[in-house]
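Worked example 3 (structure in, sequence out).
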């Protein structure tokens, strides 16, 4: 990733499995999205790049929420605090399910369960 990123450009590093761009609202915040089976998916076709699922900048003051589809920004609805919390729970459950299937009795699964127990999850 370049040190200085430009507005309107989606930077993707397949080697490091990450994408980055400046927030679509124009606030100037750098948005990094990890790529992988439990994170965002990236693909590109003749219409342009797509990231899925949506980008929700819940930790930024702007709290913008949008999709990048076919090289275009598509604005989504603003989420309430309850919707954000529910979305985070769904993401966590999706990750847990994925890793439980991948490593049902492995070290990573045991570590994940220990970490959850440690933090009251």
């Amino acid at each position: 990733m370049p040190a200085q990123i430009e507005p309107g450009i989606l930077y993707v590093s397949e080697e490091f499995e990450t994408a980055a761009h400046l927030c679509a609202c124009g606030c100037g915040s750098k948005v990094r999205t990890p790529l992988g089976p439990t994170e965002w998916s990236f693909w590109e076709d003749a219409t342009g790049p797509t990231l899925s699922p949506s980008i929700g900048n819940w930790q930024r003051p702007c709290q913008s929420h949008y999709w990048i589809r076919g090289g275009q920004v598509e604005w989504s609805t603003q989420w309430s605090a309850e919707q954000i919390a529910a979305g985070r729970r769904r993401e966590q459950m999706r990750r847990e399910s994925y890793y439980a299937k991948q490593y049902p009795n492995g070290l990573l699964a045991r570590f994940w369960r220990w970490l959850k127990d440690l933090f009251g999850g």
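Notes: The two ends are 34 Å apart (CA to CA). The chain has two domains: 11-75, 81-118.
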